[in-house]
Amino acid sequence: MAIVYYGSARQARLQAKETLPAKLDLILEQMQLRARVKGETVAIKMHTGNNIGYSTVHPVFVRKVVQAVKDGGGKPFITDVTWDAKGAEERGYSTETLGCPVFPTAGPDEKYFYSHHRPYKNIQDWKLAGLIQDASFLVNLAHVKGHPSCGFGAAFKNLALGCMVGETRSAMHDAMHFDPYWFAEHCPDAETRQRIMAACPHSAIVIDRQRPEEMHLHFEECNQCGRCLEVAPPGSLSINPANFHSFQEACAISVSLTLATFAPGKAVHLSVATHMTPVCDCFGFTSMPILPDAGIFGSDDIVALDQATLDVIGRTRLIEENIPTSMEVHTRVGHPFRWLHGPYKDPYLVCEYGEKLGLGSRQYELFDVLPLEQITRAPVGYIPAR
Question: Are residues 16 and 148 located together in one domain of the fold?
């Protein structure tokens, strides 16, 4: 059974040794990272965010991972997709603050990659970033947050999209459009198409500009509320789970191709579940957290890691007053991320697909590196106010 090391965001006492940076140190010790990286070229794949976002993994945590690699005799570098890596310094990710350089995964123009043939729906070849494949050891350092395409992004998504070039990333999103969902012959009336579009409060369904008889569904904005189906003629529009699930299956395939380039034991995965926002950090801004901070998770097993992260977060509730007013909670079934992004965006699916591909196990043991001390007290006496 896989082991997932865990440090809770909660602390019993106001002491530094009980805070998350200290618990990250304990996780790295349990995972024996220092002993495993001697002489290795270590790619630390993280999301450095975009524009003015500030909810990505804090440089304090990144620096600790970098230092652990250096202490063990490894040669670390931080890496992310080209456009995010270029602006990383503006968000505090620099050689001076982190202790190692920040490089774009596929070079400054995204022209350095290796092509892997693996047919899946609209994708034939997957272009894996060159600096990722060239590294001999991988540290997957992910930030946990919501995601408009699949409900949730953490360890899987950090590698699935962050290790591929832009062309492949776009194709992975386009996989959701592979299975047809609009059947124009059942809706020849332009006025009805306008009503379908107007029925969606999230502007998720639009009329194609080049082909006005066609309608295009933005799956990222769709929370499967069903309002469009109430006005669409029978047989004209399908809101099908298969379309939504395609993205998560593509993510699992992408991760399988990435991890296959590393020898056994040469990849570790860390997820930081703090300031979890509704959508991906690539949006370039930070909104209010929609879930309480959960802590830090670490494992050699990426499936177990995302599974455990979801399980722990799932024991809490959405902070509904923090949700942007343009979004809505229309279902309270399943995981909290599913409440917000819709029932077809089940965050657990990527774990299921990953397990089927042999990337790990959904069965795990959660090892708390510093269990929360339960403090007992005598009853509080009554002191009258003056």
Answer: yes
Q: What angle do CA 173, 289, 314 make, to 5 degrees?
A: 75
Total domain count, the chain: 2
Looking up residue 100, the CATH number of its domain turns out to be 3.40.50
In this model, does residue 385 exceed pLDDT 80?
no
Single-letter amino acid code for the residue at 300: D
| Residue 264 neighbours by CB under 8 Å, 6+ apart | none
CA distance 243 to 382: 61
From CA 83, how far away is CA 228, in angstroms rounded? Answer: 36
Model pLDDT for residues 262-308, shown as the tens digit of each residue: 999 999 999 999 999 999 998 889 999 999 999 999 999 999 999 99
CA angle 37, 38, 41 (to 5 degrees): 65
pLDDT of 381 > 90? The answer is no
Domain containing 109 equals 2-175+242-368
77: which 2 tokens? 């570098």
Q: What are the pLDDT digits (tens) for 161-186? A: 999 999 999 999 999 999 999 999 99
Ramachandran class of 275: left when φ > 0, alpha when ψ lies in -120 to 50, beta otherwise:
left
The predicted pLDDT at position 209 comes to 87
This prediction's pTM? 0.96
CB 201 within 8 A of CB 221: no
Strand partners of residue 215: 207
Instruction: For residue 79, count CB atoms less than 10 angstroms from its CB and return exposed for 0-12, middle for 13-18, buried for 19 or more.
Output: buried
DSSP 37: -
